[in-house]
Amino acid sequence: MQEFSIEDKALKTSELSKLRKEMSKVQDSKRFEHTLSVAYTASNLAACYGESVDCALIAGMLHDCAKCLPEKKLLSICEKQHMEISEEEYKKPSLLHAKAGSYLAEKEYNVKNKDILNAICNHTTGRPGMSLLEKIIFVADYMEPGRRQAPRLDQIRKTAYTDLDKAVLMILEDTLNYLQASGSVIEKTTQETYQYYVTSQKTIL
Ligand code: DGI
Ligand code: FE
Ligand code: FE
């Protein structure tokens, strides 16, 4: 649908506002508010850590582009593209909004940058060895100012600007605790990501 191609080049204001308009069409108003908040939170983190602010804005703007699709549609997109679907994802297809979103970002919204596509693809579970942009989106998604429920939010918001890896670990820890307490299915990648960041923090200390 877009006539431009989003690569690493500087983002034109008109390009970002096109994406913003597209998101306002495919998301309900609460999700759209969240989207804007993630994009701006991610852009601040990018400025703080020397990542491209433009890439952070695009990834933030598109990270939940598939969030409002029905589960059947998420499954059909992923199956059609022969993406690997885990047992947990079959049990909870909404988890697929990240993978399906990454596909739509490329095909519908013309994003070519692989780091942006990965950041969208891995924003829910994280992955071991995330790039800086992936970590920024993962953290921004959790701590954007509209989020109210999670414990330790103040601490995580502060830590995010001083030690991004520690913020990633705190988020994974709290997410796993929450999922365990609520008896939800836990995706293997979420656990593997947690283990990876526990180990990498230990080697730093
Ligand atoms: O799409 P958002 O709501 O903005 O955020 P998200 O993509 O991080 O999805 C949030 C939900 O995903 C949150 O309730 C925690 C959940 N989640 C993360 N990892 C797992 C998971 N849910 C399950 N069931 N299993 C996981 O491994
Ligand atoms: Fe999401
Ligand atoms: Fe989100």
What attributes characterize this protein structure?
binds fe (iii) ion; mainly alpha; 205 residues; binds 2'-deoxyguanosine-5'-diphosphate; 11 helices; globular
Notes on the structure:
- The protein is an all-alpha fold.
- The chain is 65% helix and 0% strand.
- It has 11 helices and no strands.
- Helix 2 runs antiparallel to helix 3, helix 4 packs across helix 6 and helix 8 crosses helix 10.
- The longest helix is centred in the N-terminal third of the chain and has 21 residues.
- It is globular and about 40 Å long.
- The site of one fe (iii) ion has 6 residues, from helix 6.
Q: Which class do the helix and strand fractions yield?
A: mainly alpha
Largest sheet: none
Low-pLDDT segments: none
Percentage of helical residues? 55-70%
Cα shape? globular
Q: What is the gyration radius calculated from CA atoms?
A: 16 Å
Total helical segments: 11
Query: What fraction of residues sit in β-strands?
Result: under 5%
The average pLDDT value, as a whole number, equals 94
Ends distance:
49 Å
Taken in chain order, the helices and strands follow as HHHHHHHHHHH
Number of strands: 0
Give the cofactors and ligands.
Answer: 2'-deoxyguanosine-5'-diphosphate, fe (iii) ion
